[in-house]
User: What shape does this take?
Amino acid sequence: MIDDEAAPHDLELRSFGRRRGRKLSARQERLLAELAPRVRPDLAHPAPADVATLFGAPVQQVWLEIGFGGAEHLAWQARHHPHVGIIGCEPFEEGVVKALTLIEDEKLANILVHADDVRPLLRWLPAGSLDRAFVLFPDPWPKARHRKRRLVGTPLLDQLARAMKPGGELRLGTDIGDYARTMLAALMRHPQFRWTATRAADWRYRPEDWPQTRYEAKALREGRRCTYLRFVRV
Ligand SMILES: C[S@@+](CC[C@H](N)C(=O)[O-])C[C@H]1O[C@@H](n2cnc3c(N)ncnc32)[C@H](O)[C@@H]1O
Assistant: This one.
């Protein structure tokens, strides 16, 4: 269901559903009020030339996860790569508080949380600031009349191509065959992305440094096959 909040940009359709779910606990309310403002990129001011300076820890690379859901992949990457700063984007409040809880519990100083649509953030970031980006199981919008809400298409790829460094990696996953085909077609047409796959196993299986997400686990339980795509920004 799509609620009646305004689209983030006149020309962009909302690619996400509801923003609020269950009532938050007192701790979650506190995390939103106190921690969220300390770990968010401030889009009201121009971005620094070097976005690595935004993190509370010294980082050598900056990665982006779009639609981190329950934040399990985001936190795994942050734990395993302490010298990488990761910006997670997620407009769904329950996901945001999950990430904030992990940041506080595990003192993860290398995560920033943009609790909103990724597209204004991509416009804000300086060109060539990202070393890696993840779009894992974006909302499939399976009904024909909703397909235009799918996030991954040429406009998002253009934004990512600008924000990513040459040589940076873009990882995408989906459990919907039709979405895999349209993503792949848009990527193959895009002059700034090159597919790294050389054999079927490369898109049928995840590499070890790509942990399973909650949504993927559900898709597999329900018998859907997942596609894993890795592209290089050329
Ligand atoms: C199907 S869920 C998958 C979540 C998680 N990546 C996983 O695999 O478990 C897709 C997520 O993308 C988020 N999303 C959709 N459009 C987005 C946008 N424009 N910017 C940031 N996140 C978005 C949704 O709120 C939702 O949590």
Observations:
- Residues 1-7 have pLDDT under 50 and may be disordered.
- Residues 15-16, 66-70, 89-92, 95, 117-119, 136-139, 151, 213-216 surround S-adenosylmethionine (CB under 6 Å).
- DSSP finds eight helices and seven strands in the chain.
